[in-house]
């Protein structure tokens, strides 16, 4: 099974001035992220504004970005849904396109039981040969995967790990302690990356890596190599930026920041809006304190 990497960027979806998906800019951004520390990109996740993309737009994004990235990095497709039949169709389409893995979010709105969650993920995973990553983000889905359900799902061969964005480090610790070593835990919150690594986690599916990917990569590498003081210093340095990137709902701040540093990704789609004047000023002021790793040139 292809190694997916410790630093994956949950990539924004660029839009043009008319609000249409800018596929050329998406390809440029994906390559720029690979050139600034990321091992791969996640398309059509929370940061990619999945709720407002059509299935046709999603499929074309998978095709275009995978064709640009090739074997330089991995492309993970967000194919989850609160509709199991729809998740099956979308995952099948992504597999046919040739993505490297899929991310399956906890079904939102329906509020399924733990048994319902187990059967949902089992059904999707057993329908595909793609490696599957669970995505637990209860702040957005209401329902949350329990430790016991994650352990049960970890026994399915192609469910290879979880993006844990619950913010519950006790839960993360129990998952790591009670699953096999080849079941990988990626932090789903940039602020939790170093604590999760310390618990035995694998890496992060990051938002901040749009801007400071090399620095996050250095933090991860430093920790793995035993240079924990260096890792902690980098973590402390990055935390004000991380906090600012979530000052209002993601991805509005990171899109605004990318536009500020010279990579046009457009506005978010309604019902999300650009940051107001006060929030925008905070973002601009915060950016002044950081070296931006993202190469902006079009020849990335």
List keywords for this structure.
eight-stranded parallel beta barrel, alpha/beta, 8 strands, TIM Barrel, 300 residues
Write up this protein.
It is a single chain. Helix 4 (114-126) packs parallel to helix 6 (147-154) and helix 6 packs parallel to helix 7 (169-177). The longest helix has 18 residues, at 228-245. It contains twelve helices and eight strands. With 300 residues, it is an alpha/beta fold. The chain is globular, with a radius of gyration of 18 Å. It has one domain (7-287): Aldolase class I (TIM Barrel), CATH 3.20.20.70.
Q: How much is the radius of gyration in Å?
A: 18 Å
Proportion in helices: 40-55%
* Sequence of strands across the biggest β-sheet: 1-2-3-4-5-6-7-8
The residue ranges in which pLDDT falls below 50 over 5 or more consecutive positions are none
- CATH level-four homologous superfamily name: Aldolase class I
CATH architecture: Alpha-Beta Barrel
Task: Report the CATH topology name.
Answer: TIM Barrel
Number of domains: 1
**Shape by Cα distribution:** globular
Strand content: 5-15%
Estimate the mean pLDDT confidence: 96
Element order: H for helix, E for strand: EHEHEHEHEHHEHEHEHHHH
Question: Total number of helical segments?
Answer: 12
Q: What is the straight-line distance between the termini?
A: 28 Å
The level-1 CATH class: Alpha Beta
Q: Which structural class best describes the helix and strand composition?
A: alpha/beta
Q: How would you sum up the major sheet?
A: 8 strands, parallel, barrel
- Total count of strands: 8
């Amino acid at each position: 099974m292809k190694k997916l990497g410790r630093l994956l960027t949950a990539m924004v979806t660029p839009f043009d001035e008319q609000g249409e998906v800018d596929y050329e800019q998406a390809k440029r951004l994906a390559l720029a992220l690979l050139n600034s520390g990321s091992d791969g990109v996640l398309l059509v996740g929370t940061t990619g504004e999945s709720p407002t993309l059509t299935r046709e737009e999603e499929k074309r994004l998978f095709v275009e970005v995978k064709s640009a990235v090739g074997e330089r990095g991995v492309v993970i497709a967000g194919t989850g849904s609160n509709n199991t039949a729809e998740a099956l169709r979308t995952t099948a389409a992504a597999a046919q396109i040739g993505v490297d893995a899929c991310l399956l979010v906890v079904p939102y709105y329906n509020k399924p039981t733990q048994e319902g969650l187990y059967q949902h993920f089992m059904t999707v995973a057993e329908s595909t040969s793609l490696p599957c990553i669970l995505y637990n983000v209860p702040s957005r889905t209401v329902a949350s995967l329990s430790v016991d359900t994650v352990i049960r799902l970890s026994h399915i061969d192609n469910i290879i790990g979880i993006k844990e964005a619950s913010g519950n480090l006790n839960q993360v610790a129990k998952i790591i302690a009670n699953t096999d070593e080849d079941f990988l835990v990626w932090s789903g919150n940039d602020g939790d990356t170093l604590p999760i690594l310390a618990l035995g986690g694998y890496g992060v599916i990051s938002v901040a890596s749009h801007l400071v990917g090399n620095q996050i990569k250095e933090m991860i590498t430093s920790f793995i190599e035993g240079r924990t003081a260096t890792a902690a210093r980098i973590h402390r340095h990055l935390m004000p930026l991380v906090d600012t990137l979530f000052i209002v709902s993601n991805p509005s701040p990171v899109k605004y920041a990318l536009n500020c540093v010279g990579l046009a990704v457009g506005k978010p789609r309604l019902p999300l809006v650009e940051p107001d004047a006060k929030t925008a000023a905070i973002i601009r002021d915060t950016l002044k304190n950081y070296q931006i790793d993202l190469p902006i040139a079009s020849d990335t």
